């Protein structure tokens, strides 16, 4: 009021308008300054190391998805973190890069172990898993496996003798029929073919189609010859069957107890690799599931030992592939994200994971990718 009286006494209308304009500008600028001061700071960018392991990490055309990726995206959003993904070809490379600080976080189905925890800091676990075994679907073996089995068991030598007897019997029968059977073909080529057919008919079916040249004596000889043929075909059948059964039993893997003495495929840097090494089981490391399955199909390994959900998901996603996952889960373990040793980021991520467990988000992601309760 005093200010207005002063303006009225000392100034005209023009001066009062100038004063009011200055006051209006001052009031208008203040809120703008306040808004500018409250602007959100840009998100902090972090390098995240990933290893493709469906269904936890899956990649296509530079875009990544999967349970681990989805979980990380939720946490990164809550923490205000912008993600730069770096892809690694195997677990060992990812673990080394995280330990050396090349990436801030390792995101995949990473098993928490004591050895790893001495070099890295892990978050709260977000998935319970374990190891299982993948094998080729049951088969009796291919042709060359059977031939090899027959050779090793000595049956091929006996087959050679039987073949020689067939040839000798063919020649003798040809000579005999040329002498006593007037209707027998005169040309040697035709006669040998006719005799060979009679011999093989008896050997394979036990039936004789030869003419009876000597009445009851000929019938007795034909009966003896048929009995010999039946014995031969029975031996052939039983020997091949026994070899095929042996091959099937030799290849059969149903549990961890069947692995000693065999070679198994594992993933480079995985818990499975260390586990089979401690058990003294021979192994061949592969970068991922695709390479391991290809190795098993090429008979480089007899089975694959790996994380149960990874093996199960691969078998389910490739129904035409002749593989199956056998046995119960062994060596139970838990998955978590990893950061550099004593990195305070581990605590923040753990708090976020605990919150997502309590809110049901982790279970929602599990159902999204596995479709069943744990």
What does this structure look like?
The chain has a domain at 153-251: Helix Hairpins (Orthogonal Bundle), CATH 1.10.287. The strands form two sheets. Strands 1, 4, 5, 6, 7, 8, 9, 10 and 11 form a nine-stranded mixed β-sheet that branches. 54% of the residues lie in helices and 20% in strands. The protein has helices spanning 2-10, 13-37, 67-79, 91-99, 114-117, 143-152, 155-180, 188-205, 215-251, 271-278, 289-297, 308-317, 345-359, 361-370; strands spanning 44-51, 58-60, 63-65, 81-88, 105-111, 120-122, 127-136, 263-267, 282-286, 303-307, 323-340. The chain has 374 residues and is α/β, with parallel strands linked by helices.
Blueprint (SSEs and pairs):
Elements: H1 2-10, H2 13-37, E1 44-51, E2 58-60, E3 63-65, H3 67-79, E4 81-88, H4 91-99, E5 105-111, H5 114-117, E6 120-122, E7 127-136, H6 143-152, H7 155-180, H8 188-205, H9 215-251, E8 263-267, H10 271-278, E9 282-286, H11 289-297, E10 303-307, H12 308-317, E11 323-340, H13 345-359, H14 361-370
Helix pairs in contact: 3-13, 6-9, 7-8, 8-9
In brief, what are we looking at here?
The protein has 374 residues and is of the alpha/beta class. The chain is 54% helix and 20% strand.
Offer a few descriptive terms:
20% strand, 14 helices, 374 residues, Helix Hairpins, alpha/beta, single chain, nine-stranded mixed beta sheet, disordered N terminus, rod-shaped, two-stranded antiparallel sheet
Low-confidence stretches: 1-11, 29-40
| Overall morphology | rod-shaped
- What is the CATH domain class of one domain? Mainly Alpha
Class by SSE composition = alpha/beta
Kindly report the average pLDDT value.
82
Order of helices and strands: HHEEEHEHEHEEHHHHEHEHEHEHH
CATH topology of one domain: Helix Hairpins
**Count of helices?**
14
Strand elements, count: 11
Report helical residue fraction.
Answer: 40-55%
What would you report as the Rg, rounded to the nearest angstrom?
40 Å
């Amino acid at each position: 009021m005093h200010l207005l009286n002063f303006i009225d006494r000392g100034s005209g209308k023009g001066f009062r308008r100038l004063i009011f304009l200055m006051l209006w500008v001052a009031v208008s600028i203040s809120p703008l300054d306040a808004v500018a001061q409250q602007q959100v700071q840009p998100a902090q960018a972090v390098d995240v190391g990933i290893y493709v392991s469906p269904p936890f990490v899956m990649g296509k055309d530079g875009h990544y998805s999967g349970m681990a990726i989805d979980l990380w995206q939720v946490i990164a959003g809550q923490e205000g973190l912008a993600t730069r993904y770096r892809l690694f070809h195997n677990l060992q490379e990812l673990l080394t890069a995280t330990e050396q600080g090349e990436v801030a976080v390792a995101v995949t189905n990473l098993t928490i172990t004591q050895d790893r925890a001495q070099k890295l800091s892990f978050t709260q676990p977000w998935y319970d898993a374990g190891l299982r075994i993948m094998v080729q679907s049951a088969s009796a073996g291919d042709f060359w496996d059977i031939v090899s089995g027959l050779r090793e068991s000595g049956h091929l030598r006996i087959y050679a003798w039987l073949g020689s007897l067939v040839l000798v019997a063919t020649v003798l029968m040809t000579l005999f029929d040329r002498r006593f059977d007037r209707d027998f073909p005169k040309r040697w080529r035709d006669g040998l073919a006719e005799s060979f057919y009679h011999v093989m008919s008896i050997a394979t079916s036990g039936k004789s189609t030869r003419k009876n040249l000597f009445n009851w004596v000929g019938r007795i000889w034909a009966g003896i010859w048929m009995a010999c043929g039946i014995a031969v075909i029975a031996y052939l059948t039983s020997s091949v069957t026994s070899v095929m059964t042996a091959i099937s039993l030799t290849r059969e893997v149903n549990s961890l107890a069947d692995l000693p003495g065999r070679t198994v495929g594992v993933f480079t840097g995985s818990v499975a690799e260390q586990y089979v090494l401690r058990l003294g089981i021979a192994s061949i490391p592969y970068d991922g599931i695709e390479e391991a399955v290809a190795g098993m199909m090429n008979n480089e390994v007899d089975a694959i030992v790996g994380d149960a959900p990874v093996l199960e998901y691969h078998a389910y996603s490739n129904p035409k592939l002749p593989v199956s996952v056998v046995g119960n889960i062994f060596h139970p373990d838990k998955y978590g994200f990893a950061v550099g040793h004593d990195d305070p980021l581990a605590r923040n991520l753990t708090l976020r994971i605990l919150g997502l467990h309590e809110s049901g988000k982790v279970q929602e992601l599990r159902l999204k990718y596995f479709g069943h309760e744990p």
